[in-house]
Design a protein that fits this description.
The protein is mainly β. Helix content is about 5%, strand content about 40%.
């Protein structure tokens, strides 16, 4: 679905002088999805990623074709549970980190089953009001 997109960016600082308001189209799928066959959407439940600006009810755009690296926000299965966390992979140590100080790191120990399912590449959210 093609939605109208103003060509002039919206100022988040001081207003700019009046400019032309010519519009072009914005396809949200084209904007958010890089690899259609490997992209999935997941709704977030919980507050463990709030310091990464990911909140309960937001929708994650997840690409399975991207190789997860240290520092990426990922969707992972740990012992059968699907989680969204930041991947920590350094010096042979692997952990999934919450972006909320109330949650401890999930350090993967021997015997734990983990599968990195995909990398978060985008986010859709609604503004309350």
């Amino acid at each position: 679905m093609l939605l109208p997109l103003g060509l002039t960016p919206v100022s988040a600082g001081f207003p700019s002088p009046a400019e032309d308001y010519a519009d072009k189209g914005l396809d949200l799928n084209q904007y958010l999805v890089r690899n259609p066959v490997s992209t999935f959407f997941f709704q977030v439940r919980g507050d463990s990623m709030q310091d990464a600006q990911i909140f309960d009810g937001d929708v994650l755009v997840v690409d399975r074709s991207i190789e997860a690296c240290h520092g990426h926000i990922v969707v992972a299965f740990v012992n059968g549970e699907r989680l969204v966390k930041r991947l920590y992979r350094r010096g042979g140590r692997v952990a999934l980190l919450a972006e909320n100080k109330a949650y401890p790191p999930l350090v993967l120990t021997e015997g734990a089953e983990m599968e990195i399912w995909g990398v978060v590449i985008g986010l859709a959210k609604r503004i309350p009001g």
